[in-house]
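Structure (tokenized):
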């Protein structure tokens, strides 16, 4: 089916934006040997690398500049990275070639127009991507074509409640320092990713959070609704979506959450998300939910 005019228009705005500011930015000189992939990875990427077994197949949809895809291609795993932004893919391919990562491959694709290629993956990741499309559910259901029974699906989105603080701050900063990028930056210093050495990383983070042309946000139950419609059962989340669950449990990200019943109900999720207005303010309300295709 052909895309709607608005889907195409927003898609072009978003890919132009990432062609200007590929995400995540990183200094390629920091990668000399394969071990540098782990050394330079964030906590989340390390956790995935540590917990995904040897030899698995992985789809990283909206892979950006490919740092995660390259890391996950170690340990005999095969990874396909997809993205529609040429410049991001070029950087991903440069990193792959530099470190001679034969089991990582990258291809250009729009998640809203994916066709079934017959490939099936053990893991499907889509981190921070769908909320930048005009039709997140279409992108999600397209991705499910690549799943099979048991596929672990990880979707990361901005949360409707958790992102409120950042939105308010962005509105204020944009109004207060209309034409002064430097002042804007200083005003939000506490919300920037902390990496004094890697300016590229900091710049891309700043652009992504404060100058993006299109972002949506989604509640926990909206995402769980997408899962239900596509026979994906809830497994776990970061941070925990359940009431009174210790953060520690969420670190075994592919293990079924031990908390059930009312603590993991719609009303519990509302209370939880109200708390996220404050507790997730520095990460811009970003959360991810892991599911398993049944
Ligand atoms: C914030 S970046 C996230 C990159 C990476 N997943 C990460 O977590 O660092 C969003 C990425 O999604 C890609 N993207 C957005 N909409 C897309 C679409 N419709 N099809 C393919 N890629 C898309 C952008 O090009 C960009 O690289």
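Design, position by position:
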């Amino acid at each position: 089916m052909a895309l709607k005019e608005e889907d195409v228009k927003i898609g072009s705005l978003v890919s132009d934006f990432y062609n200007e500011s590929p995400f995540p930015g990183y200094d390629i000189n920091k990668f000399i040997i394969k071990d540098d992939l782990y050394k330079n990875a964030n906590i989340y990427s390390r956790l995935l690398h540590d917990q995904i077994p040897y030899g698995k197949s992985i789809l990283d949809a909206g892979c950006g500049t490919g740092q995660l895809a390259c890391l996950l291609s170690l340990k005999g795993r095969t990874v396909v990275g997809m993205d529609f932004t040429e410049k991001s893919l070029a950087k991903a391919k440069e990193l792959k070639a530099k470190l001679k990562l034969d089991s990582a491959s990258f291809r250009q694709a729009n998640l809203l127009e994916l066709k079934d290629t017959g490939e099936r993956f053990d893991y499907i990741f889509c981190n921070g991507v769908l909320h930048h499309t005009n039709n997140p559910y279409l992108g999600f259901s397209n991705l499910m074509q690549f799943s099979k029974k048991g596929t672990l699906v990880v979707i990361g989105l901005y949360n409707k409640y958790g992102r409120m603080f950042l939105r308010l701050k962005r509105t204020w900063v944009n109004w207060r320092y209309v034409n002064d990028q430097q002042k804007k930056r200083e005003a939000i210093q506490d919300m920037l990713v902390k990496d004094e050495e890697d300016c590229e990383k900091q710049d891309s983070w700043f652009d992504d959070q404060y100058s993006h042309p299109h972002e949506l946000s989604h509640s926990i139950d909206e995402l769980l609704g997408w899962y239900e419609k596509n026979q994906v059962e809830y497994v776990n989340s970061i941070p925990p979506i359940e009431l009174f669950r210790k953060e520690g449990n969420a670190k075994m990200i592919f293990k079924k959450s031990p908390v059930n019943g009312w603590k993991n109900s719609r009303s519990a999720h509302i209370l939880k998300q109200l708390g996220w207005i404050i507790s997730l303010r520095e990460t811009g309300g970003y959360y991810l939910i892991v599911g398993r295709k049944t």
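Reviewer-requested clarification: Residues 11, 14-15, 18, 23-24, 62-64, 83-85, 88, 110-112, 127-129, 132-133, 208 surround S-adenosylmethionine (CB under 6 Å). The radius of gyration is 19 Å.
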